[in-house]
Amino acid sequence: MQRIKAEVVIQIPEEYVLISRVELEQLKSNELSGVYWSMKDLERRISRKSEWIKENILYPPRFRKILDVAHGGFVYYPRSKGQSWSFHAQKMADFLNNRFYDIWTGGINYETSSTNAN
Q: Pfam families from the xrefs (predicted)?
């Protein structure tokens, strides 16, 4: 079998930059660094209305004890009418990613529940 070695030159337009996958991941993770979300930002981010977010994420005691700044968390819960919610974007994004199952199942382990029902 014959082999041919070829050298190809590819020009990258000035408006583009070639970076490694590792650098891309670092840039993505830094995207939320120092950023705070409002309730509207969170609604857009997870495609849910504030009522659903409050009922399923913010007010259940199992989450509030983690989230509330009063307990060392990263969500400011308004103390009076007229105050706004404030979410540390990076920590809230991590929380949502890590707690997806708990949020959507209400903390119910369906595997255990179905075996206990029999």
A: DUF771
